Amino acid sequence: RRVHGGTCLLTIDLGSQPSLVLDLYRMWHCVTLVCIFSLMEVTVVHTVDDASPEIPTEPKPVLKKEPRIVGGKPASMGQFPYQVLIYIRTDQGKHLCGGTIIGEQYVLTAAHCMSGVSADKVDVLAGHINRSVAKENWILLPVSEIYVHEEYLSDKVYNDVALLKLHKRISLDGKLTASLKLRDTEVSTGVLCRVTGWGLTKKDGEVSNTLQYADVQIVDRKTCSVQHSTELYPGQICAGYSSDRRDSCKGDSGGPLVCEGYLTGVVSWGEGCARQNKPGVYANVVWYKEWIEKRTASLNTDDSPSTISGFPDNSNPDERNITKTETGTDKGNKGAVNGFTNGIALLSFVTVLTYLIY
């Protein structure tokens, strides 16, 4: 039969219908089929991240936000000893987040990475920068307990912080592992900060095998609220640039934003990655400092922490206030696998069909 071209509106689950267009083509036996797709809206929010073709089924908020290093540089061994790699194991595969060592027995990460996850499904890896190296090169830090903020709201992405209590205290040697001090004063607009992670190096690319870092500037909260068309609260801060230069991206969620040598933010969400006038949004560590300290017993209290040499205090935003201790070690091994985000896309499916035969 000959039918006229038309327009229809489809809601497609990208996870369950990856080959919808090909299926329609085969079903209709089109002589000529021209399809134009216009992406109208994508809801891809705060799942744990990945670049494999597997589709996770992690709980996720409903905001149009992406877990959020684009425009960065590869790190060197020992440059960021407080950074950890976190894998969450599910029936669908392994999903990737970042985290920060903040004491001999605690790691700080994002609530959206840990919501609904049990401790036995979490692997924390420290002491290396390359995900592709043999598992024996990593230090495995088993998790005994997970504390997700009691008032975490997935729909607004408020209180996006979680604590991981490690099964054993770890040795903080300042080289492979180190504890980063929490910020206790609000950071000023324009301050240069550093964000690190193994996330995407471009929006539609793959997660990085090597730890990446990028420098970003703190953006005024009111300005950031306008740019994202959503209300931010004091528990959130923003960092980025007015032009699309550098940003955190998928796979970096839960990782550290370090300003003036202190842990200042936790990678939370953003609209795309490194988009113009769309700075990344982070959980504001100073806002949660009391909450963190109430739930930890092993945070270092030394007011004069050891520092890595070679970086003047006012020049490098990441390599200060790094604490070393001499305690027992807990070594182990674990491989590295990617994770992926899923979403629902509303597509305007415009078709021009000529001599369409049923």
TrEMBL record:
For this UniProt record, the keywords arranged alphabetically read as follows: Disulfide bond, Hydrolase, Membrane, Protease, Secreted, Serine protease, Transmembrane, Transmembrane helix
Domain Peptidase S1 intervals:
69-297
> Short name of one Pfam family for this protein?
Trypsin
Q: Which GO terms describe its biological process?
A: protein processing
Q: Which SMART domains match?
A: Tryp_SPc (SM00020)
Q: Where are its TM segments located?
A: 339-357
Annotated Polar residues bias: 299-315
Name of this protein:
Putative serine protease 55
- Molecular function, one GO term: serine-type endopeptidase activity
Q: List the subcellular locations.
A: Secreted
Q: What's the main place this protein lives?
A: secreted
